[in-house]
Design goal:
Elements lengths: L1 H33 L2 H33 L2 H21 L15 H28 L2
């Protein structure tokens, strides 16, 4: 039974990694090839922030399957990856409460660059969690 749980954990981690790659690389390249810069920037930020919850949920379920299957390393790595994907929501959320000096603009493209970089790094962590689950570590 533990092998089934580990296989499901590896499958879900792989799905989260594939989703991270799709949202940060494929959508980014397609958006900036077919749209002007402002629209592509808004579109990519929306895609990353809306897919982050799904990716984190996949990794949370994968972490549950990994711990039930006996893979503690995969459990910890999947939880870290889930928190990494959730941090994209916090990175891209609008800032409230802080008063900006007059004439200072909020740079949303910097948020996008940070979110795409973070998504790529966390995608590698999710892939690693899947490999750990597949080997039962």
């Amino acid at each position: 039974m533990s092998q089934i749980f580990l296989a499901l954990a590896a499958l879900l981690c792989g799905g989260a990694a594939a989703s991270g790659w799709t949202s940060s690389v494929i959508v980014a390249n397609d958006a900036f090839d077919g749209m002007d810069h402002g629209r592509a920037d808004r579109h990519l930020r929306k895609v990353i922030s809306s897919s982050a919850g799904f990716q984190a949920a996949l990794l949370g379920v994968a972490a549950g399957f990994a711990i039930v299957g006996g893979a503690t390393g995969a459990f910890i790595t999947a939880l870290l990856a889930a928190l990494g994907f959730l941090s994209n929501v916090w990175t891209l959320s609008p800032r409230r409460g802080a008063k900006k000096p007059p004439g200072v603009r909020e740079r949303k493209s910097t948020k996008r660059v940070v979110a795409v970089s973070l998504t790529l790094l966390v995608t590698i962590v999710a892939f690693t969690a899947g490999c750990l689950a597949a080997f039962g570590v």
